[in-house]
Each structure stands twice: as C-alpha cells, then as structure tokens.
Records
---
Amino acid sequence: MNGSVTVRAPAKINLLLDIIGKGADGYHFLRTVMQTVSLYDKITVRQENEAGIRIYCDKENIPTDKTNLAYKAAEAFFNYTRLQGHGLGITLKKSIPSQAGLAGGSADAAGVLIGLNVLFEAGLSYEELKGIGLTLGADVPFCIRGGTALAEGIGEIITPLPDISDDCVFLIVKPPIGCSTPAVFKAYDEIEAPVHPDFDGLIAAAAAGNTENFAPLCSNILEQAVSIPEIEKIKNTMLLNGAAGASMTGSGSAVFGIFEKKKAADSCADLFPEEYFTAVCKAALNGAETC
Ligand code: C5P
C-alpha cells in the first residue's frame, strides 16, 4: 500500500460543441471535440486513521463536503471496489477555475479515481474507471482519458482523434462572472432555431493536423444560450490580437483562443483586467495521471 498518491488532472476545452438532441432524462446529446490542456489541478489522496472521507482545499469558494465531486468519486470508488471502512484524506490544489466550462470538478473526480486505484492497488481497468466516472458526470470519462477526442452521447462515447499540433498555444480567459451548467442547458432549450457549428469541417481540418485550418472553425452552440457580454468582448480581443480562432468552452464562461506563438498569447493575456482569470497553455496528451 502506498502512503499517498498525487495526480495531476488537466482542464478540458471544447474545440467545437454541437447539440443534436435531448434524451427523456433531460440530458442533451452532444457532438463535441474535446482537448485536455496543460492547466492542472493537483490531487493527493492518502489513507487516514479516522474513518470517513475528508477534503482539504486551498480555495475558499470550493465546498469540502459531500457535494464536492471529488468526495462523490471516492464514495463511488469504495462502493465499486467494496473497500469501505477506510479513512481517506483528499487534498485539492486548484488551478482550474470553477463555473468556467473547463471541467474543473470532473477533472478532480477523474484524479481521485486514478489516485485511489493506485493507492489501494485495486487494479481497475481504464474502462472500469470510466464507467464509475460516468455515474459522476458526463465529462469525467474524457477527463480520465484526455488528449484530443470526439465525444458523443451525453459525452460518454469517446473516439480518439489525432493529437493536435504541439505548436498550438491556448490562451484561456474567464471573466469574474461564472456560468451554471444546468442553467445554460435550460436556456439553450428556449432558443427556437439555434445555429449549428461546422462539425464536419472541423473534424476534417483537425484530422489534417493544421492549426490554421481548424482554429477558425472552433465554435460552441451553447454560446447562443449565454448572455454575458464579456464573452464576445474576450473573443474579439483575442481575434484582434493574433488568435487564429476563439470560442467559449463547455457551458462557459471561460473562452479560449488559439495562437501559433506563445509570445502573442502572453501579450494578449496582458490586455485583460486583473480580476480576469488568464492562463497560457499547450495541449495535454493525457488525462489525469500520477505524478
Ligand atoms: O454531467 P454534469 O454533472 O456535468 O451535468 C450538469 C448538468 O448539465 C446536468 O444536470 C444537465 O442539466 C446538464 N447537461 C445536459 N446535457 C449534457 C451534460 C449536462 O443537459 N450532455
């Protein structure tokens, strides 16, 4: 048994997000191209003498009770493996902002599952971990897998795509105001005739591995359901300052821009007000992994 295990869990962005239907349970059927990026939360899991699960987090706005997805992930892992009765501490060092569409909570849940599998030498396969992950949230299976992938269904049918160019630089910017995922999907349902993104065009351009070709096709149908003026302003600032493409990620409110040079992304980041979250990153080839 290991004393403690630390995992780094990357954020994800949606290079393209389209909605193609809705199930009886209210969940929407998506067609989305997802990408993990080098913006990581660090999750440490360790056995503790006292029974129960405890979460320690360096950010005050993050709940440390049963509502945290990391807690639910540990519970689901113990239920699945029947390893109940252990005391567990989970330390979250957060870099991924919440209410951003960057899957911060899902990344932490993925990190907990990967970490516990190693800590308890449980030997669960990736498929088993992804199965447990899906019971926690639609993005968790992708956060376990990472890289570049097409996700369909509610996000759980994952088809790997060729890795996008290592030269690609992403600038992620989130205004102080955040978005609630259920509220954004609900607002989407009220739109009469949403405009759909060019899904086939992006897939073809991404497969050809050419940033110049696919970046302008990055688009997110959920942008039409979010009425936060800052989002359009951030996109425009990026596009006027060297981004080859820019789009909201997930249900927002973060926006990413794709640049060919880190210097241009860094200079663009400096243009945003201090209270905005900004991060310059690269594509991450893997999902949550021990470090
Ligand atoms: O799965 P997750 O917990 O991230 O989803 C949060 C909420 O977002 C769901 O309760 C649902 O209202 C909405 N959602 C959806 N369709 C999806 C994913 C999420 O309607 N594919």
---
Amino acid sequence: MNELMRELLMLPEQSSTVAGEIDRLHYFVILVTMLGATGVAAATLWFLVRYREGSALSRRAREHKGAESPGRSGTRGALLVEFAAVGGLLSLFLLWWVIGFRQFVRLHSPPDDSLEVYVTAKQWMWSFAYPNGAGSNGVLYVPVGQPVELTMTSRDVVHSFFVPQFRVKQDVVPGRSTSVWFEVTRPGRYPIYCTEYCGAGHSTMRGEVIALGGEDYARTLEGLSPIHLAGATTERPAVVGEQAPAEPLSLAAMGQRVAAQAGCLRCHTVDGTAHTGPTWAGLYGATIPLEGGEVAIASEAYLTESMMDPRAKVHLGFRPIMPSYQGFIDAPQVGALVHYIRTLRDVPRTGGHEPLPERVEGDVPLVQPLPGLPPVSGAVPPEAPP
Ligand code: CUA
C-alpha cells in the first residue's frame, strides 16, 4: 500500500525515520480529498440526469410547487443528515489537525542523544561544522541510525534546507538560528536543495548528505579538515624543535578562542562570577528575566539574537551597552560560540549572580511561547535593577 501510493504520487524514497509517518498523513489527505471530489462529481451527475428538464420528476415538482410544504418528519430527517455531514467533516478536519500537530511537535523535538551539526548557509553554498571541530562544504556527513540535529544560520539572506528523501525542510534565517533533526535509516547519498529563492545562484545552491555506517562515519570525520574561522583562530602555536602533532580544535575550543579574540570575555565570565554582562556559566537553557517583565529561554536562537541584536531582549539587571556583533563575527564563529556556551551549562553561578530560577534540561525545545504571551511557568516578578 505504502509503495503503491508512493509510486502513484511520485514521491522519493523514504530514508529517514519520520518520512513514513509524514507520507501516511499525505496519503490520508490525498485519499480523503479524492473520495470527496468523486462523491461530489457523482452526485452532480446523478442530479443532472434525475432532474433534467422534461423528466417525470421535474414535471411533478413543477405541479406541486407551492401546493404543500414538506412534513415535519421530512424536515427533521434533512436536519439530521446535515448535522451528520457537518459533524463528520469537522471531526475529519480535527483528526488531520491532531495527526499533523503531533508530527510537528515530533519534528521539533530532537532526541537527547542527537549529534549536533552547525550549518551555515550563504549565497550559494552550504557549510557544515561538526562537534569535533571538523568542517565540510557542500557535503554533510551523517551517521546512519543516529539522530542528527542541525542548528542553522545564514550569513546573508533567507535560505531553506530541504532533503526530499528525509521529508525535512527548514528555513535558514540570517541573524538567528533555526533547527531541524532527522535520523537516516539507510546509508547512501541524498541531495540537499535550497528551497527559498536567494538570488541569481539559487538553483545552483545544492549539496549532498552522505550517510555512513558508524565506523565509516568516525573515520570520515577524522579525515575532514578543521573548519576555517576568520581571524586565524585555528592557527596553532609554533613548536620549536620537535614536531608536535597538530591537535585539531574541538568546536567548543574554537568558541573559546573566538570569545577571547572578539572581546566577549571582557564583559562575560565563564566561571559564574558577576561582571558587566551576564555570566555564561549555567546560561544555556535557563529562563532569562528580561527588561519589561517578560522572560526568554536561553536557546541557540536567543544566544544568536543577543549577539546580533543585543538590545532586542535585554537581561534584567544589566545595562544595554553591548554592541552588535553583526558583521564582526561570521556564522561559523557564532556556531562555535553558541556551542561553547552550551558546554558551560553545568558550571555553577556564584558571587552576585542569582541562580536562575528555572532550567530546561536536555535540549531546549524549539517550540517556545510566542513573544507577548504570558510565560507558561516560572514567571519572574520584575524587580528594579540594582
Ligand atoms: Cu539559498 Cu536559495
């Protein structure tokens, strides 16, 4: 049934764990609409023939016109049919919605053991940075049978990451980070397309996912060269005498270097002590009280926004003096910084820093309360800044 429908609808292979589920909803919607359309067409035909001009029925209807109104039982019967039809359609719609919503939530909740890859889109290329500090352009290497979470941002305009075989598509937006996850079920090569018009080279903005078995994957990652960070952040200390094997930097270590070179550490501490800006210790995943009484969760998106547009959401109790880093640090550096801040999430806060009231354990959920709505829980009463 699945194969038949897939062939009929000309869908590509299902190569991720969610693909089958998404296709089933697709089939359900298509089948119901096709059945509905056939029913309406059949009824139209039937009425055309049955009540055509000059038929016995139409003549009788003309004779009886105005003579008598339908009886009470007739009205009640018609009403019942109408209620049943409306109720049936409503519950069908509700069922679609429930299935769709559950899939949406699943697609936006990466499993805890996800492998994290940072994706940078630019005109007209995809770049990938892996947790071991390696990088690749155009080709995304993923392991088979392990969930992979992509944290994505753009250096210029809006792009969209699409792998048809995985049934996964997500916009990639400059100045903020979006995320998507998938788990590949079989080794192979899968095309990546950009599905948001992004300029003259949009149609050439393609890439490829190469899914490999566990050992092949580890070996391939080892062989990749470290990502290049602008500002010579990957340069290695010169060793006089013996040849020290060049240790590739992990993404977190790169983030640490970027933080030092970009001057972040002049205001932000990483050991939990108080300073000009909020400490990065225990920051990731915390609920941040904002100026104006609202709160934000320190997710990848919040951290990215705070670097690009620091005045958008100011941490309560801190002066809005941080300059924007838009244009000063590029996307791989933002990815490395965010990753570095993530690794500091379990460092305790001390010395003047109130422990933050609430923490999201594991990955920060991507579905967050809309701005302007009251927070779901852990509301922080606004206090006067010191
Ligand atoms: Cu990138 Cu279209």
---
Amino acid sequence: MRLVLVGPPGAGKGTQAGTLCERLGIPQVSTGDMLRAAQAGGELPEELARQMAQGGLLPDAVVLELIDARLSEPDCRAGFLLDGFPRTTAQARGLDDILRRHGGAIDAVVALEVPAEQLIDRAIHRRTDKRTGRIYHLKSDPPPPDAELLHRADDHEDVVRQRIAHYVSMTAELLPFYAARGVLRRVDGVGSVDAVAERIRAALS
Ligand code: AMP
C-alpha cells in the first residue's frame, strides 16, 4: 500500500499514522522528521534551516529529492505512508514521476476530517502534565488535582485558527487533484482513536 495521510492540525494524524503503519507493516515517511534529522546532523544548508524556522515551505525540488532517495530504500518496496508530503500539487506531480520510475502509484490518500470548531475545542482544553507527559482534556478527560499542567503555546486559539486556515489553503488544490484520480478517501475523524482507525481500515479495504 502506497498511502498519503493528510489532516488538519490536532486531528489525530500522528496517532492514526502510527497505528496504520504498524498494522500494514509499512514505514511512515515524514518529510518534517527527515528535515529535522538533517538539520540535527548539520546536513541542512543554513538558508533552508532559516526557511524552516520561519515556518515557510522549502522548495519543491529539495523535498522531492529527499523523498526520491527515501522511497528508493528497501523498506519502502512493500509500501509506505507519506506524512507531511505532498503539500503542493507540484509536489504531487513530482511524486507521480518518482513513483512511475519506481513502477507504482499512490493507492490512496486518506483525508481525516474534523470540524474546525472541534479542533479548536480540543486544543484550548488540552493540557499536558509536566511530570508524566500524560495529555488531558479539561472537560472530557480532566486531570487529577495534583497535576502540573502545561498549555502548549501552539494550542492557543489564535494559533490553532491560523494553522487550520493554513491547512485549508494547502489542501484546496491537493485534495481535488487526488479526488479527480479516484484515490481520495475522506474519513470522519471525530470519535475515539479506535473508531477512527476502524473507519480508515474500512476506507482502504
Ligand atoms: P512538519 O513537521 O511536517 O510540519 O514540517 C516542518 C517543516 O518542514 C515545515 O514547516 C516546512 O518548513 C518543512 N517541510 C516539511 N515537509 C515539507 C514539504 N512537503 N514541502 C515543503 N516544506 C516541508
């Protein structure tokens, strides 16, 4: 299975990616993780590191080269799950070219759908216990009285709204691009982790 997973910030994409990869026995390929690893290893040119730090997208050619090299590795032969890539239709077309050379194509693009208001509700009520790392929801999964609570800076409402708007504009062309090929699978991302995982499984079968 050659998959792409997309979803707005806070939709549970990371959790579902982990479950899905484990179930299918395929690697999760995240351009963000690869770029951070390159940066940590001092292999990312300064100009690109600066663009990343400012939250801008890196040039398509840079990420396409990374993806090409990664998908050539043996563990990707039986499939992979792309996370954080493609982010533009130019990248999607570049991915097509790469996969054509490898003799394949994307089988499905899973788009997790969660209404913006729900994403905002989750984010503004999310707290992490500094001591244990456990995540709570102030209303639906309240922390114990002795927890040392942290509200992440990127979980504040204005930041969340901005990130959701960014996701919406990013996918405005990308999702129709894959829908036109009949590979887009829209999955309701509201519900328990298990319920969403089951919907993804059903959408892929
Ligand atoms: P992420 O963890 O996926 O949000 O990626 C972190 C940063 O890496 C992004 O803000 C971009 O600067 C860069 N990046 C990751 N994936 C891509 C991509 N597909 N295209 C361009 N830049 C990317």
